[in-house]
């Protein structure tokens, strides 16, 4: 029996690659990225481990590319899952933001994801049990810098709920995942410039460990699985407790002479 098809955008990066690898256990993968060199390297690695996967180059901000993506994915089989993982952040602060960086953040992180959903709307409806997973960010839940990127991710979380409500009658489930600081190559590059970058980041996290790409992939796999058949419209933080609160504030309370415990 042919496996259903999962479309994974941003599959050339660490998180996308991990998601594609995990979903390849149950799906044929349409691995999508604008960077064909990175994508082919990721696909070759997965194929060597027995995955059925196709590399598809696509600029998600271009409608012609999305239409071509739809046709190429359809050749692989029945598309039942869309993982909108592609994304990037431009300006760190509002002061640094320009009209150009604002447009870039909104276009890639919000508009492209919604346009990708619309591209696969009919196949997801037709299969009767479609899944949409939007990779958002903790930046969409609170203020951690990159304000335009954060606004786009907050919009993506809201879009996730809208899809869940409007398309639930067709059996489509729509959920978001909000990663915290993930040990990707981009962060490892920062570490080369600042060896203490991960230690500094950990100061914000109650659980003193940072998520890995495989942790995001595991969350995606769960939300796509029958075990999550009644879960839709949620945003699941995979953030080692970052959005739960500040550990420094907790220390202030527990070290207070007025704190008696329970």
Descriptive overview:
With 262 residues, the chain is an alpha/beta fold. Helix content is 46%, strand content 15%. It has 10 helices and 7 strands. Strands 3-2-1-4-5-6-7 form a 7-stranded parallel sheet, sandwiched between helices. The longest helix has 21 residues, at 99-119. The chain starts with a strand and ends in an 8-residue tail after the last helix. The model is unreliable at 256-262 (pLDDT under 50).
Query: Which class do the helix and strand fractions yield?
Result: alpha/beta
- Average pLDDT works out at 91
Radius of gyration: 19 Å
| Strand composition percent | 5-15%
**Main β-sheet, spatial strand arrangement:** 3-2-1-4-5-6-7
Compute the number of strand runs.
Answer: 7
Q: What is the first-to-last residue Cα distance? A: 56 Å
Shape: globular
Query: Ranges with pLDDT <50 over ≥5 residues?
Result: 256-262
**Helix-strand topology string:** EHEHEHEHHEHEHHHEH
Q: What level of helicity do the residues show?
A: 40-55%
Question: How large is the count of helical segments?
Answer: 10
Query: Main beta sheet, described?
Result: 7 strands, parallel
